[in-house]
Amino acid sequence: MEFGLYLREYLEDETLTQKPSGCILNGCMQLYRATGEEFYRKKIFSVAEKYKNIHNMPQDALAEWVNAARAFYGIYDETGDEEWRSRIEAVISRVKALPREADGVFAGMGPAEQYAILPFYMEYETRFHNKAEYSDIVLQLRRTKPQENGRYFLTGWYLMTLIDVMERMSVEIFEHYKSLEGIFKETIRHIQQNIRAEKMDLMERAMVGYAITKACNMGVLNCEKYTGSGLMLIDGVIDGPFEPQDAVTMGIIMMAYAQYVITGQNEARHTNKF
User: Fold this and answer.
1) Residue 114 domain-assigned?
2) Which of 5, 21, 91, 167 is the most buried (most CB within 10 A)?
3) What DSSP assignment string belongs to 60-103?
4) Three-class SS of residue 106?
């Protein structure tokens, strides 16, 4: 079975709608942008409804809810419904109230939580707050940069955070953008030489493949040099047989698959040029 068909069957499972994941919602958002298929649009709205009442959000599930709320921006754009804007404001108020360490970094935030929160924070600053807190977000990323001997799992979360934050920031704020671009490229160069040599599990391949391929699609990385590595990692994830995964892992695989689709579209356009 082709991966896209398997994915539709997976998303039709009613238990997924009852107990969704922010990563699943982000996967649907990226696939909708990549394909324009109504199937993904409907799934976005049905899953987002589970996260709409921010006042019901338990404190220990903050990162999960903020991750899901990243879809609220797209829903707001599509519907123009100010209720979604008010939900975005409610979420950002919780984010900005998070406790911090003495150096300004959010306290107790691991790599997965950072991935859930910082892209949402960046999009808010770009769209609704005149980019006022860009320096704060860059601070978070500079001070939590993984060590050179870090596991791919940890590096994968960080790379996904970097590229998703960069996607949502204005390139016009040149100093901050170039700072994150430099960190991204440096981290990729470090792991690139080890990708083929070291064994990576399914989630790690999806994370790193997503980050590399998306960076190529955005023009952050040289496509001729890096696209092959990114697609190789994603191929290793979406080639059958397909086995059930937890919602977080499946959401990341969906995101990687969306970038895979976009790469194919870009290559087709390039091939068809006169």
Assistant:
1) yes
2) 91
3) GGHHHHHHHHTTHHHHHHHH--HHHHHHHHHHHHHHHTS-B-TT
4) strand
Identify the domain containing residue 220 by its residue range. 3-265
**Residue 270 maps to a domain:** no
**Is position 272 within any domain?**
no
Do the Cβ atoms of 76 and 84 come closer than 8 Å?
Answer: yes
Task: Record the pTM.
Answer: 0.93
Say how far apart CA 189 and CA 98 lie, in whole Å.
33
Distance from C-alpha of 145 to C-alpha of 104, rounded to nearest angstrom: 15
Q: Are 96 and 112 in contact (CB under 8 A)?
A: no
Domain count, the chain: 1
Question: Is residue 67 a part of any domain in this protein?
Answer: yes
pLDDT per residue as tens digits for the range 205-259? 999 999 999 999 999 999 999 999 999 999 989 987 788 788 899 999 999 999 9
